[in-house]
Amino acid sequence: MLAKLAATIVVAGALVAGLLLPWVGGPGLVARNSVSLLDALPVELTDETPAGPSRLLAADGTLITNFYEHNRTPVTSDQIADVMKQALVDIEDSRFYDHNGLDVQGTMRALMTNLAAGSVREGGSTLTQQLVKQTLLQTAKTPEAREAANAETVGRKLREARLALALEDTYSKDEILTRYLNIVYFGQGAYGIQAAAQRYFSVNATDLTVPQAAMLAGLVQNPGTDDPISNPENAVERRNQVLQRMHDLGHISAQELTDYTAQPVQVTPGLAPPNGCIDASIGGFFCAYAKDYLIGTLGLTQADLEKGGLTIQTTLRPDMQAAGDQAVLNTVGMGAPVVGVFDAIEPGTGHVLAMSVNRRFGCGDPAAGCESINFATIPTKGSGSTFKTFVAAAAMERGLPASHTITTPEPYTSRVYESYNPETRKIEPYKIGNVGSRYPNTLTMTQALYMSSNTYFLALEDALGAIRPAVEMAQRLGMNFDYSVTQTPAQQIIDENRPSFAFGTDGVSPLDLANAYATIAAGGVRCVPTPVLSITKPNGEPLTGEDGEPVVKGDRCEQVIEPGLAHTLNQMMRRDVEPGNRMQTGSRAYIPGHQIAGKTGTVNANDSVTFVGSTPEYTASVMVFRPRDNQSVGGYGGGKPASIWHDAMLPILSAQAPAAFQPADPRYAGRGVDAPPIGDRSSDGDDDRRRNRGSSTPPPAAPPAEPATPPADGPAPPAEPVTPPPAN
Prior knowledge:
With about 725 residues, the protein is an alpha+beta fold. Helices cover about 35% and strands about 10% of the residues.
């Protein structure tokens, strides 16, 4: 080590004597004509302070987590105790205020001191030179750049010397000292004086005492060897050397020296700030979604997050996140084999408000109750009859009103769609039945939707003539079918004309489902889901892209279906939740005094159950499913999911005045969203559909018989291929 230092000093001496002699004058080096004779300062050296961690904030400004490579919190000069500045200058560069970046006298003194001590006790470079080296080293973006910044070569020393002179010519001494204190490493993962003060003493840099400042100043040369937490004996010895130097230079008295050196090592270790989504204070899965959005959608890099010092304002509502977390855990225990997910989104903006999962985010060990898979966004299991809403929307857009009545036998056999029967090994007409025997044969579309009649919706698919309108409606509302692991591409569903689409058999993203229903709640305005409101740089200005425009563009929304159609659907789905609609399936989600539109869903074997509910201000999807097997989770979509929705939204809705959905549009409601059945006739053909819709006064008919207790929504059949598998 001493040989390396001696060699470095020889190199520095050669530089001074041979290259910089023309600019030497007086007691120190004076830079002349620096604009023309010295290298232009690289951008890394022109920033006033190094960037700190990027902060991910909730909508109310509270901290969710940080992203950083180095634990550093930049502070201004007046936020650093004067004794800290003095201790550092005294031990590292006592002639700091006299030289102009290079100090031959100080370098030779350091060599003699270190040779006498038998170890490196005093630095050979000026603080300005050290600032140059540390800045280039810590901002290096490639291994080659890092190696160049740390190489013991004449070329590196020459460049470092030139840049040190240029820095001195550009910035004040206090600015240089402040920047150095913000960038230097103090051990224990702490970069910069504020992080070090917090790590070792749990205080701010402005509150450091003389002994604390002396201890930190002594860490700069050997932070690992003199660490007061791991090596207290070394630390107190080094601290006392700094105190002695401060006394020798007249900055503390003899009595203060005696008092301070008599004190033992007194550390109060503090924790490092949270780093990454695994440390998120709330909404770990939302944090992971936001990070993926920042990188995958907005084009930021990991380095941007860890080194950019950005402030990222998100859409997360802590109150709704906390309510969702508690509601999920009230019904599905932490780390249980069954996954419970609650996703909330704001209709009309696409702002994602909460993502709750009965897991801790990050470790990837389900047995320990934590996950790295984001079940709140990834399609895993189907959502069952929630897809009937898409079929209803497509039918209404094609001219069939909410009062459109169909009579179906039990079970119902399609006249349009076919599927492969594994028992007969033949292509046969697609057939489906309801759960239980209490469903009326004759229903309006409204009744069929809130009762969740399977037979009605297969007949309604028959009325559409092909599955394409329903699939394209789902896409327009916000559903995606591009996750190859659990989803069939939309075009394949259309090409194969799969009738099982209405029954939600493929994997569904809970976020997609919430967003599609939010489109309906917003009067047909679909918005791209977003977790980010703004991103600002350390100087407070918006982060911009290559085009010079802010990377956060604002809400991205468009009208995708007629408002009247959406309003009518909301009124239809209110019948599934609000009192007075027997055989409804989502009554457990009801919160008195509030209008709530909802739909339940259950897949075969009951291994996935779902409820989606909306008010005019909020939409939330709840899915409870088994991610790794096909056992029943217990109950239907109107059970656990509806209960979770109720528990999550109760504290939110109770704290605000009720809001009302827009009334149904007569063009889509027909004779009303709650009209009784027209009669026993099935609207099998186009002529029948036109006659039923066009007649002014329907014949009187009694409402269908209803059981004393509401049934669960009908589970969906498994998806079936339209062509047989290869022969064995």
